[in-house]
Design brief:
The chain is an alpha+beta fold. It has two domains: about 1-50; about 50-130. About 60% of the residues lie in helices and about 15% in strands. It has three helices and three strands; from the N terminus they run αααβββ. The protein has a three-stranded antiparallel beta sheet. Helix 2 (about 50-70) runs antiparallel to helix 3 (about 75-95). The longest helix has about 45 residues, at about 5-50. It is rod-shaped. The protein starts with 5 loop residues before the first helix and ends with a strand.
């Protein structure tokens, strides 16, 4: 039996080399595809953990308290009791720490500064709002 000619041996080597390169390329594409599904899952979990409704509820309640305080229909004792209620409800029902501070009325600017701090252990939110009533 006669062996392969030198030209045939070189063609066979190129075929094997190209097959090897294609298999490495397919491996890296599969690796990238698997990582993209993990990133998508992590992003979706992050969106689900974002406490948008809780923040909106707390913010609306605090702005209502600010409005009542600005109109003079809320005494300091009532404000303290409401603050304790918000903190207790947030802590016991949502495992979140909520703190807020309602600044004094600024007659020159015609507004109050309200600072809100929300922390549920995963997400922390701070807001400073200028409220005008």
């Amino acid at each position: 039996m006669e062996g392969l000619s030198p030209e045939r041996k070189e063609e066979g080597q190129w075929i094997v080399l190209m097959g090897f390169l294609v298999s490495i390329g397919i491996f890296f594409l599969a690796l990238i595809l698997s990582q993209s599904t993990i990133v998508g899952q992590t992003t979706a979990e992050g969106v689900l953990e974002f406490p948008k409704n809780d923040l909106q509820d707390v913010r609306a309640e605090i702005l209502d308290i600010t409005k009542e305080k600005s109109m003079g229909s809320l005494t300091q004792a009532q404000e303290n009791r409401v603050m304790e209620d918000i903190q207790n409800l947030s802590l016991h029902r949502k495992s979140a720490l909520v703190e807020y501070l309602i600044g004094d009325w600024d007659p020159g600017a015609g507004n109050r500064i309200v600072r809100i701090h929300y922390n549920n252990g995963v997400f922390e939110y701070d807001e400073t709002a200028s409220v005008r009533y």
